[in-house]
Design the sequence.
């Protein structure tokens, strides 16, 4: 038996005049999943979210929610609710009235309505702010009211359009944890739009990474980070050393290559299809490279010269020039052993895990 | 450099002279309306309420005032309703011919009013319509709508379109959204539009003169009275009341707009 996905996106296209905002998107989002749409601004992630909510229509293709086509169905008749980027709190209503806004149409009766409002405000820890007017709230409070106002409608899907981008760093990190916690607790599907890779990695069950109207990869956070499908994905999520290689070959489930200055390596495709090995590229994450200190032995070993050093508190990032590699190798090392004291210009030895190389579509 | 006049002082002198020339004649009107003399000339003779008192027994004047009220309220209401529709289309939608449509709405502001008046007269008579207060209202609508649209466009621009989307998202219909979000949020601009257009209609002469037929509005009545020298002080009194009413309405509109703006403003 196959489970019907909560949201299905089938061959969705969107054009604004000649500009193709979304290009043949396909994705399916499961029930109870925390799903993120991650990408740089202008990649079409918000457009896709607005289509799920009913604020935009696909030029072609269709979106199904709970197995039903949403073509022609306006936002007020969809089982979705949205937390807008600007929060869109009604300034002429107080917090309770904001939260009760959608309930009014349901005609639940005063007691039922009040108790649902109270419960929603408790959920977001704003019980005491009920009588406060909508325009007298801080950014964090507005965000919570927007959340309560959407959740009180008991949607099947909650849509969140960059809900944390307007908050300062500390509050943002706190809200990430709270949002994740809330989602687990109520168990409905969350679809989050964000351009912040850490936010997506830390909160999501799965992430769709988008560039220029296309989905480059859909996978779990760990998979996206450790095994990015394309060079763009790798570059967008954290640092990646892209390596000069020769004799790159793909056979079955693994690949082999010769990396000048580093050596012959092999790696696993890990389920990826590399349709064109000629345009593929090999990479390794900076933290998978380690400095070999004096007196230590390791195998394999690369030698190089430190050309730049950047201190980040708990870690130091070194740029190391390797003969045969066109780009400097970036090495991120904790400062426990004195990486922050390595002089620029000195020779260093570097080692790596043999299974740390990944192959990506260039 | 010392011998050159201080540029700052030069500018403030200029402003004072400018404002004086602009408003001094208007100030003379109320002054002479309280003067106990049938001709408006200096020196002032004595203080009197006579001219105001004689207005109260004047049925023709009261009829004209009533006509002005009917025309003003109707024009203000209709112009604001049309303004809401136009302003929403301009600020919230993209459509073919939008630039042309908004310029056409604004055009009556720069077209000579007498040309509009004559053209309207020709067209309305051609259509076989009787000149009445309704034709005056239609004419005033033409010059009031641009003001309504201007005021309401800035009202619409002042609030986040996602408020309306949020309302739809929370299950409200398009009409319910208009009633529960758009209109309350626009209320300051709506009141401002009503007051401004009422004032414009109240003071308007040329269109009313051409289109009013046998039912004069106040400005048309005043113009008619100017032919009789003896009636001049009464006209001055009536004019003073009109100026005062306009000032009160426009000030109220501005105060209301500012107060509501403060109330609606979302703290950053």
Sequence:
């Amino acid at each position: 038996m196959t489970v019907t996905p909560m949201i299905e996106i089938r061959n969705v296209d969107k054009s604004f005049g000649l500009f193709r905002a979304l290009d043949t998107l396909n994705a399916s989002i499961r029930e109870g999943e925390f799903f993120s749409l991650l990408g740089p601004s202008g990649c079409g992630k918000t457009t896709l979210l607005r289509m799920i909510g009913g604020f935009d229509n696909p030029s072609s293709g269709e979106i199904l929610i709970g197995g039903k086509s949403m073509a022609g169905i306006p936002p007020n008749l969809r089982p979705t609710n949205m937390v807008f980027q600007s929060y869109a709190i009604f300034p002429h209503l107080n917090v309770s009235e904001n939260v009760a806004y959608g309930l009014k149409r349901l005609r639940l009766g005063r007691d039922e309505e009040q108790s649902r409002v109270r419960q929603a405000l408790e959920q977001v820890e704003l019980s005491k702010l009920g009588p406060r007017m909508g325009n007298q709230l801080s950014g964090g409070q507005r965000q919570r009211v927007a959340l309560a106002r959407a959740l009180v409608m008991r949607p099947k899907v909650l849509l969140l359009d960059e809900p944390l981008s307007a908050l300062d760093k500390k509050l943002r990190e706190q809200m990430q944890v709270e949002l994740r916690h809330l989602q687990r607790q109520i168990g409905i599907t969350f679809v989050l739009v964000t351009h912040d890779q850490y936010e997506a990695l830390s909160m999501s069950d799965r992430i769709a990474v988008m560039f220029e109207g296309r989905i480059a990869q859909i996978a779990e956070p760990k998979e996206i980070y450790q095994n990015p499908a394309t060079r763009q994905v790798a570059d967008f999520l954290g640092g990646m050393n892209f390596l000069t290689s020769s004799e790159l070959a793909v056979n079955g489930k693994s690949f082999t290559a010769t990396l000048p200055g580093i050596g012959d390596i092999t790696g696993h495709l890990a389920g990826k299809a590399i349709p064109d090995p000629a345009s593929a590229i090999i990479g390794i994450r900076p933290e998978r490279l380690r400095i070999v200190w004096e007196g230590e032995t390791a195998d394999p070993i690369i030698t190089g010269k430190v050309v730049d050093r950047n201190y980040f508190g708990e870690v130091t990032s070194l740029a190391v020039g390797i003969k045969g590699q066109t780009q400097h190798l970036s090495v991120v090392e904790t400062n426990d052993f004195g990486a922050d004291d390595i002089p620029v210009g000195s020779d260093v030895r570097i080692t790596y895990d043999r299974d740390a190389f990944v192959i990506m579509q260039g | 450099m010392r011998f050159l006049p201080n540029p700052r002082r030069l500018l403030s002198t200029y402003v004072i002279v400018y404002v004086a020339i602009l408003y001094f004649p208007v100030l003379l009107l109320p002054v002479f309306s309280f003067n106990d003399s049938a001709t408006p000339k200096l020196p002032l003779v004595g203080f009197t309420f006579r001219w105001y008192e004689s207005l109260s027994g004047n049925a023709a004047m009261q009829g004209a005032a009533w006509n002005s009220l009917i025309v003003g309220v109707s024009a203000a209401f209709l112009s604001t309703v049309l303004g809401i529709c136009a302003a929403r289309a301009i600020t919230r939608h993209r459509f073919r011919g939008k630039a042309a449509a908004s310029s056409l709405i604004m055009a009556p502001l720069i077209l000579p009013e007498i040309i509009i008046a004559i053209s309207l007269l020709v067209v309305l008579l051609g259509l076989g319509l009787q000149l009445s207060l309704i034709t005056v209202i239609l004419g005033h609508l033409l010059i009031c709508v641009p003001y309504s649209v201007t005021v309401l466009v800035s009202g619409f621009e002042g609030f986040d379109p996602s408020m309306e989307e949020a309302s739809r998202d929370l299950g409200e219909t398009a009409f319910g959204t208009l009633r529960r979000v758009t209109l309350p949020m626009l209320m300051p601009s709506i009141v401002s539009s009503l007051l401004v257009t009422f004032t414009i209609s109240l003071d308007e002469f040329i269109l009313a003169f051409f289109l009013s037929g046998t039912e004069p509005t106040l400005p048309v009545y005043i113009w008619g009275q100017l032919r009789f020298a003896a009636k001049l002080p009464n006209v001055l009194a009536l004019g003073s009341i009109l100026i005062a009413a306009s000032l009160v309405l426009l000030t109220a509109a501005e105060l209301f707009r500012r107060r509501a703006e403060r109330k609606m403003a979302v703290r950053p």
